[in-house]
Amino acid sequence: MINPQNPLIIQSNSTILLEVNNALFTEARNAISLFAHLDKSPEYIHTYSITPLSLWNAASLGLTPDLVVERLTQFSKYPVPANVIDDIRELMGRFGKLILESAPEGLVLRSTDAVLLHHLILHPKLKSMVIRQLDPERVLISSENRGYIKQVLIGIGFPAHDLAGYVDGEPFSIHLRQKTRSGAEFSVREYQRQATESFMGSPDSPGGSGVVVLPCGAGKTIVGIYAMSLLQRRTLILVTNITAAHQWKREILDKTDLAEEDIGEYSGESKQIRPVTLATYQILTYRKKKIDPFIHYEIFNKENWGLVIYDEVHLLPAPVFKFTADLQARRRLGLTATLIREDGHEEDVFTLIGPKKFDVPWKDLERQGWIATARCIEIRVDLPAAEKMHYLTLTPKKQIRLAYENPLKLKVVREILQKHSGEQVLIIGQYLTQLEQFSSEFNIPIITGATPNKVRDQLYNEFREGRIKTLVLSKVGNFAIDLPDANVAIQISGSFGSRQEEAQRLGRILRPKKKGEQATFYSVVTRESKEIDFAMKRQLFLTEQGYSYEIEYREF
């Protein structure tokens, strides 16, 4: 049936075209975002792709092939191509065909399709993991290979549904406060409760491992703390840096009945193992030489952990996936604002941490007042006349650097700072020489990776208290900074086309403001350069969340 009023065109290569200026745009976008990835978002037509991983994630959330086809049909102008329907049914049908479960004999890989199982266990990468065949539908595998077998199976297109359960871990009493230490009323928000309960699971849909996706500023830490209180077990929390560790500790002390001595910090500065232990990714991946073992790996076995929390799981360093493959008997909770990984490890997050258990559109929480209303503005500026010709003579790598460090960006930022005088502003960038120049030009404190942690904490505190109104931040400002009153971010350079970074940087200013002020996110880019291409790619994730970018031009 043809319906020209609908906003979607589904193509036979499993891509979806979505008309932006259509009355059903928002409804259709929300429907397809559960099972398709946004690839391009120019002004009038957005392009999505349906991939095996996007369908398997949808299946893990409980969506059926029939529901996916129904949503496509509901919003499509033309009949959905038959081969796309067949692919959806085939790929989603694979999720759950193979099940990992515990049996009296040990860890078992089971399938009701005996022929499929017979052929799979002959695969060169699977052969060595099989101990013996128990019957036509079950094979016994070593419990140590629980993570690795899942990696192999998803690699050959048959993701396993892991129902093998978890060790309980050592009990440890953790209770939420009804009032924070500072005396404010505290309760878990409804969406935080739903997210945690989705992770915990139910008799019909067992949980215990998976990823919760929530916008920056929406209280992902509370989801982790609530999970701890429900499980009542010793917990290992892995974080991106010391600043994040300190923030988690502050939140745990503020929102639970735990005492200071219950919480340990395992980092370059301290090596405490306590019932609740905060460890940095950096210390876990530390080794003296590239060929040496990771000397702090033992932290995973130091305690009988009942829960391992991965903060900012989209930033999980690749070596930690190896550790996580060994941790499959522990409950694992990943927290993130975006499952996008620029290194292509999305499949490892799916198999080793767990499937996406909960997701909510950023704009939904904005409408409900849980995150700040945000306006995104891209300001385009030319290179100085003298640099334009020079730009053309450079190698691509040097062209990118010159475009990012365009000296006219200083004038644009001066304008923005004057416009937002008295507001809480973050200037975020990639290149240290550029950041130092901005810090010096505007007499603003700067925080980089080289800034001592004590100095960082002091500057962040002064910013929170309003004694400092503006900070210049390097990539350390991309994540794990709790600056609730920051309401303006100015991006002057970035990690090429990183969608993940764009989301994190906007996230720095999304915490709800006391007076309900709007957040404003500026991105200053150089015209007629590769930076424009990167900017369009960077904006993809936020476009999918419902944000649009206003484009402005500056001439000097």
Radius of gyration: 25 Å
Low-confidence stretches: none
How far apart, in Å, are the first and last alpha carbons? 55 Å
The helix count comes to 23
Structural write-up:
Helix 2 packs across helix 4 (82-94) and helix 7 packs antiparallel against helix 14. The longest helix is centred in the middle third of the chain and has 14 residues, at 242-255. The protein is globular. The chain has 4 domains: 8-94, no CATH class; 98-162, no CATH class; 190-358, Rossmann fold, CATH 3.40.50.300; 367-554, P-loop containing nucleotide triphosphate hydrolases (Rossmann fold, 3-Layer(aba) Sandwich), CATH 3.40.50. The strands form 4 sheets. It has a 7-stranded parallel beta sheet with strand order 12-13-11-14-15-10-16, sandwiched between helices. A 7-stranded parallel beta sheet has the order 19-20-18-21-22-17-23, with helices on both faces. The protein has 556 residues and is α/β, with parallel strands linked by helices. Helix content is 37%, strand content 20%.
Blueprint (SSEs and pairs):
Layout: E1 8-10, E2 15-19, H1 25-32, E3 37-40, E4 45-49, H2 52-60, H3 65-75, H4 82-94, E5 98-103, E6 106-110, H5 114-120, H6 124-127, E7 130-135, E8 138-141, H7 146-155, E9 160-162, H8 190-200, E10 209-213, H9 220-231, E11 235-239, H10 242-255, E12 263-266, E13 276-280, H11 281-284, H12 299-302, E14 307-310, H13 318-325, E15 331-336, H14 346-353, E16 356-359, H15 362-367, E17 374-381, H16 385-392, H17 396-404, H18 409-419, E18 425-428, H19 432-442, E19 446-447, H20 453-464, E20 470-473, E21 488-491, H21 499-507, E22 519-526, H22 530-538, H23 540-544, E23 549-554
Parallel strand pairs: 5-9, 10-15, 10-16, 11-13, 11-14, 12-13, 14-15, 17-22, 17-23, 18-20, 18-21, 19-20, 21-22
Antiparallel strand pairs: 1-2, 2-4, 3-4, 5-6, 6-8, 7-8
